[in-house]
Write a structure and sequence with these properties.
Length: 87
Amino acid sequence: MRILQRFEKAVETAESKAFNATDKQALKLYGLLKQARLGDNTTTRPWSFQFQACAKWDAWEKEKGKSELQAKSEYIGLVFKIGTSEN
């Protein structure tokens, strides 16, 4: 299976209601997803009282500099790790 197909399957898995990621893991996945699809974050940081928006912006910003392939590979690996871990 090609990386793009595995990535899209991982996104589908992570977005399912049965997928149980912690808040920290969900933010990591969000940052990797944005980096894989859009590249480096070039937007301005939201107002500090917008807690959820800031957390998402920060998660994406942490992935800055990663290539599309690297971000997709890490996303796939994290989805697999979460999916196979015992909760």
